[in-house]
Amino acid sequence: MTEKLKIRGGNALKGEVSISGAKNAVLKLMAAAILPKGETVIHNVPELTDVNIMLRVIEDLGVKTKHDKTAKTVTIDSTDITSITAKYELVSKMRASFIILGALVTRCKEAIVALPGGCAIGERRVDFHIKGLEALGAEIKIENGYVHAKAQKLVGTDIYLDIPSVGATENLMLAAILAEGSTRIQNAAQEPEIVDLANFLNAMGADVSGAGTSEIVINGVKQEDLRPIEYTTIPDRIEAGTYMAAIIATKGKGLIKNVLPSHLTFYNSKLIKMGANIKLVEPTVIEVSCNQRLSAVNIVTQPYPGFPTDLQALAMAMLTTADGVSIITESLYENRFMQVPELRRMGADIHQERNHALVRGVPKLTGANVKASDLRAGASLIVAALMAEGESEIEALHHIDRGYELFETKFANLGADIVRYNDESDTLNGSKMDNSKGSVNASI
User: Fold this and answer.
1) Nearest Cα residue to 54 out of 37, 76, 82, 38
2) What CA–CA distance (Å, rounded) separates 212 from 194?
């Protein structure tokens, strides 16, 4: 049975939406929670497929976990670790789980971790992870699809990353926590999720400084210096950017709650250039609105604090009906224009050449049957369907479920005409879909 979304576009989204905990932060906190012995509690955990996969990864290590979905907390008791292997059938489903390598090798002196999987957005090799671990003193073998790392003792050193890889920065931070001496990661990633991980590690007794800059310094501590803690995950800046895009693209008005505006500075500047209105209402609440046709802008994705690659597809959807011609350059991943053919099916005028896309604004999009190819492409198709005239169906929702908590409910609360249904039974959670209006049943 295949679940699909049915969306009837044309409604200006209005109201308010509360942003969940950051997927790209909480997954790394869960991996880091195996470093101290004892019970760590992480709050503001979104209910996502990726969270469930990470729970299974660490449970396979012998770690005890409890996921309270109502309270949005995860409890991780890492007093005992009985296995050093992270299996292919789990790691291959989600790239972020590869970060368990650094945590395992520093705590257990050995780790066997499958090479990672995740969204098919382009080549994302693990060379920087491996070279960094070897610089710290680990012996690495790669065979049969697994990375086998051993290190009786890790020793701090200077590590320079050729590119500011988020995953490599995080993996090396975790590995260096219990290393002897001091480690400097130069050309480090600067994303807010890196800062959140550093704050988490410091709260449990680690010594990390410089997170959020291009140079991170980790002074190694002893295992007995680490203690379990309670910690609250930062809000998801990409989820916030998604709802902002949807409200603006439909010429609506809404409040985005539980957001840290400083995490979206560059993105917000582009939205304002397009013609959106963005106002800070409270320190963690912003108001977004738009009452005019958007204007074309040029966008180049860059590592943080530049324009986020995770919001590139959302921006493209918005610009499909903007006044003028926009050029979008994807500088990070070679396959991150996978939404282009689907947007064309909805009437978008997009010409793609390698990592450049020329988007010529059209008067309107029209509803069509489309398929999500990855997480962010799927989100862009939702926004496009909300903009479009008529009805759209979106399939391959498992990609979207990886990164957006209760997204159809949140969109419905903003006034979207959206329903998730099963294409065999035409039902959602046992409730019949109202085909005459395409609306969400009130019981959802």
Assistant:
1) 76
2) 7
Instruction: Name the residue type at position 35.
Output: L
**Averaged pLDDT score across all residues of the chain:** 93
Tell me what pLDDT residue 426 has. 58
Q: Which of 29-43, 58-72, 124-138 has the lowest mean pLDDT?
A: 124-138
- Judged on CB neighbours under 10 Å (0-12, 13-18, 19+), 411 is buried
Distance CA 223, CA 227 (A): 9
Decide if 243 contacts 264 (C-beta within 8 A): no
Give 201-234 pLDDT, tens digit per residue: 999 999 999 999 999 999 999 999 999 999 999 9
What residues contact residue 208 under an 8 Å CB cut-off, 6+ apart?
Answer: 173, 177, 198, 201, 202, 216, 217, 218
Helix 237-249 crosses helix 312-319 at what angle (to 10 degrees)? 0
CB 205 within 8 A of CB 219: no
- Catalytic center residues: 119
For the chain, what are the domain ranges? 3-20+235-432, 23-223
Query: In one letter, which amino acid is 63?
Result: V
What residues contact residue 44 under an 8 Å CB cut-off, 6+ apart? 20, 21, 26, 72, 232, 233, 234, 235
CA distance 208 to 346: 48
Euclidean distance between CA atoms 92 and 117, whole angstroms = 4
Higher pLDDT, 1 or 5: 5
Phi, psi (rounded to 5 degrees) for 329: -115, 120
pLDDT of residue 190: 98
The residue whose two tokens read 């493209």 is 316
* pLDDT of 23 strictly over 80: yes
How far from chain centre, in Å, is Cα 436? 35
pLDDT value, residue 231: 98
Give yes or no on whether 3-20+235-432 and 23-223 have one common fold: yes
What pLDDT is stored for residue 333 in this prediction?
Answer: 79
Do the beta carbons of residue 366 and residue 346 sit within 8 Å? yes
Q: Is the dihedral of CA 350, 271, 296, 389 positive or negative?
A: positive
Task: Give me Rg for the CA atoms of the chain.
Answer: 22
Which superfamily does 23-223 belong to? Enolpyruvate transferase domain (3.65.10.10)
User: Stretch 256-269: mean pLDDT, rounded?
Assistant: 98
Given 3.40.50.300, 3.65.10.10, 3.30.457.10, 1.10.1270.20, which CATH number is that of 3-20+235-432? 3.65.10.10
Query: In the numeric block, which tokens belong to residue 402?
Result: 């990886």
